[in-house]
Amino acid sequence: MSAPKHATLATQGLVTGKGGEGMEGMEGMTTRPAVRLGAVAVRFRTKRKDVTALRDVSLDVGSGEFVAIVGPSGCGKSTLLKLVAGLLAPSSGEVLLGGERVRGPRRDIGYVFQRAALLDWRSARRNILLQAEMRKIPAARARARADELIRMTGLDGFEDAYPHELSGGMQQRVALCRALLHEPPVLLMDEPFGALDALTREQMNVELNRIWRETGTTVLLVTHSIPEAVYLADRVVVMSPRPGTVTEVIDVGLPPEREYAATLVSPEFRTATGRIRELLGAVSAHD
């Protein structure tokens, strides 16, 4: 599959932290965004006080785009993913997925969490196929898709292994295959590599970049790692402390295909990571 058409993303992907400012009259908008958050706020009540988790957040994500979200702990990054997935309703504003308002849990997304959450008694293949059983995907089609994903993620030879026989990186590959089995147009990833060692995390970054280019899936990634965000994403959304708002959006300016070592020393990478660190006020402890 060809790489996403990044030339149109500047017009598809306007992001602003001020309600809907700038979202009207977007010249050059040629296609409907895959994801739209419009003036979203999330408020909830605890035993002690009322809390505003997100305030006035607007975000458009173009089809096939990779957007990373960074910010301090507790700023609402994971809450944004839950809104898109329909697992949480906004207190105000709206969330659209493929132009359709999100009103409840969505079946047309993939979700990868920090922990692989594999079933210990099922092999890698059968963990992947659990998605098919839950969605009642025809068995032959599901097996063919699972085989394709196993090859794509480098799990060949490990498909019959059980979770305790797999490394952390391999377990996350299985979780990624499971999330992609039904070919979702949007993939949500909530700090998926945070528990991995540094070397494995780098390898998974490289693999994820390749898989994204091959599938053309729209990706929203939450991460605490600034280098990871810049290496993987077309754009990086930098959020403020709670109540979370969009501080700035960084256009990374790198080509879709990225050789790891060369990318980390490129001017574009240094400029983007430097600006994000400046905005966040400190170097991420997870870098």
Automatic annotation (TrEMBL):
<dbReference type="InterPro" id="IPR027417">
    <property type="entry name" value="P-loop_NTPase"/>
</dbReference>
<dbReference type="GO" id="GO:0005524">
    <property type="term" value="F:ATP binding"/>
</dbReference>
<feature type="compositionally biased region" description="Gly residues">
    <location>
        <begin position="16"/>
        <end position="25"/>
    </location>
</feature>
<keyword id="KW-0067">ATP-binding</keyword>
<dbReference type="InterPro" id="IPR050166">
    <property type="entry name" value="ABC_transporter_ATP-bind"/>
</dbReference>
<protein>
    <submittedName>
        <fullName>Hydroxymethylpyrimidine ABC transporter, ATPase component</fullName>
    </submittedName>
</protein>
<dbReference type="InterPro" id="IPR003439">
    <property type="entry name" value="ABC_transporter-like_ATP-bd"/>
</dbReference>
<dbReference type="InterPro" id="IPR017871">
    <property type="entry name" value="ABC_transporter-like_CS"/>
</dbReference>
<keyword id="KW-0547">Nucleotide-binding</keyword>
<feature type="domain" description="ABC transporter">
    <location>
        <begin position="35"/>
        <end position="266"/>
    </location>
</feature>
<keyword id="KW-0813">Transport</keyword>
<dbReference type="Pfam" id="PF00005">
    <property type="entry name" value="ABC_tran"/>
</dbReference>
<dbReference type="InterPro" id="IPR003593">
    <property type="entry name" value="AAA+_ATPase"/>
</dbReference>
<dbReference type="GO" id="GO:0016887">
    <property type="term" value="F:ATP hydrolysis activity"/>
</dbReference>
<feature type="region of interest" description="Disordered">
    <location>
        <begin position="1"/>
        <end position="29"/>
    </location>
</feature>
